[in-house]
Amino acid sequence: MKTSIFALLAMANTGSAFTPTAISTTTIKTRTSQLSASTEGATDDRRGFLTKAIGGVALGGIVANGFAVQGPNPYIPPSQSLNGKLIVITGGNTGLGLESGKRLAASGATIVLTSRSTAKGLRAVQSVKDYVLEQTGTENNNIYTLPLDLCDLESVNNFPELLKNTDAFKANGGNIDVLLNNAGVMAVPDLQITKDGYEKTFQSNHLGHFALTGLLTPLLNPNGSRVVNVSSMAYLIANDGLDMTNLNGEQEYKPWDAYGRSKLENILFTKELQRRADEAGKKITTVALHPGAVRTDLPRYIIGEDKFISMQDAAPKLIDELKVLPAMYFTKGVDRGASSQIYLSAFGGRDEDIAGKFFFNLKENKLTPAALDEQKAKDLWKVSEDMSGIKFQF
Predict the structure, then answer these.
(1) Which residues on adjacent β-strands are paired with residue 42?
(2) Domain 86-295+339-388 belongs to what topology?
(3) What are phi and psi of 262, to 5 degrees?
(4) Where along the chain do its domains lie?
């Protein structure tokens, strides 16, 4: 399936409301012309694709229509409602993860942010602390960071011991209340294999989180916990069903197809985890969600990872802003995009009403048959156990 970012964004915002914004056709044509001039002679396929796509969008008048996605107002958990709760957030140093950490911490939660970079993790911790003080006038010093690389199963296997040795874990009675599986990559332009021998999108978005969740399951609060998986409406790219013979791009690798498969895998994992937890009589509520098409660090693979600058580090150059300009008018801010995962991580909704469900804009969103395939969910679970070497202990 050939899927451009613009098709994906349109798909990703299914069910959203759109509001006109003030941007003229002249402005779009000018910016598109600047981009075309600046990329003349480029040989990189993905950059050439983007130039053509942006030009096509502008000529078609789609961006000129100036529609921007509007989700619900940012969800703010009640003050102090999360006192005594320990929440672990993967990919917590930027984007949706960082925003989630801020608002959950402002409601009293103890937060552990994971990051591949210790320096970025420490900056994120300070950012969360500053936010809490600014918003509430009080300090929350129960904010921590730990290293985690989902594309390295050794790092994943080491994580539980690192967590158990933190003051965060010890002070919370040795329990995790919420595991927010937030980290991920999108549209990696070419086939990349991790040190463990797996395709990068598959391991980052699914297998790494599967293994992490399995290792942390014994540490979840036995009196009630939640596992919140950030998926995407992009699972519809794989709407013909999960191809178990191509999980690692063995047959064919296409960036958007790989991303769509991984988001379908997130949903199938959510449903099978809930089924198994229920069968074992464990008070684990697992739920998946679509945040919407959100302006986060995910465009590192649109701009090109070699030139990508993390939002924490510096402002991007004009040329890189122009490359994602059309997408800006079909996306929503991180504050709104994070609302569903914050709501679910803050124990919004009754467990029985959200268990195994898929949420968008704080509400359940109906799934297609591909995402409800119980046999594929079981097959994926078995393969994931074999690949990761992790078996869940309920």
Answers:
(1) none
(2) Rossmann fold (3.40.50)
(3) -65, -35
(4) 86-295+339-388
Task: Supply φ then ψ for residue 254, to 5 degrees.
Answer: -135, 130
Identified catalytic residue from 144, 259, 301, 329: 259
Residues 9-47: tens digit of each pLDDT: 434 443 333 333 333 434 434 443 443 444 444 445 555
Cβ partners under 8 Å of residue 33, min gap 6: none
259: annotated active-site residue: yes
- The three-state DSSP-derived secondary structure of 238-295 is HCCCCCCCCCCCCCCCCHHHHHHHHHHHHHHHHHHHHHHHHHCCCCEEEEEEECCCEC
The amino acid at 362? L
Backbone angles phi, psi at 143, to 5 degrees: -120, 130
Q: Where are the alpha helices (DSSP H) in 280-356?
A: 300-303, 318-323, 325-328, 334-337, 339-345, 351-354
286, 226 contact by CB (below 8 A): yes
The first and second tokens of residue 204, run together, are 């980052």
Taking the C-alpha atoms of residue 344 and residue 353, their distance in angstroms, rounded to an integer, is 11
Helix (H) or strand (E) holding 148: none
Note whether 229 and 272 are within 8 A (CB): no
pTM value > 0.85: no
- Extract the tokens encoding 368: 């297609």
DSSP, residue by residue, 157-216? HHHHHHHHTSHHHHHTTS-BSEEEE-------SS--B-TTSSBHHHIIIIIHHHHHHHHH
Q: What is the C-alpha separation between 28 and 329, in angstroms, rounded?
A: 11
- Residue 113 dihedral angles phi and psi, to the nearest 5°: -100, 125
Task: Quote the CA–CA distance of 353 and 351 in Å, as a whole number.
Answer: 5
- Checking DSSP bridges between strand 17-20 and strand 67-70, what pairing results, if any? antiparallel
Structure tokens, 150: 């989902």
What is the C-alpha separation between 109 and 143, in angstroms, rounded? 9
CA distance 47 to 316: 16
Tell the burial category of 374 from Cβ atoms under 10 Å away from its Cβ (0-12, 13-18, 19+).
Answer: exposed
Strand-pair partners of 181: 229
- Given a contact cutoff of 8 angstroms between Cβ atoms, the answer to whether 69 and 13 are in contact is yes
Interval 91-112: pLDDT, tens: 999 999 999 999 999 999 999 9
Torsion, Cα 237 242 246 249, to 10 degrees, reads 30
Return d(Cα 214, Cα 164) in angstroms, integer: 15
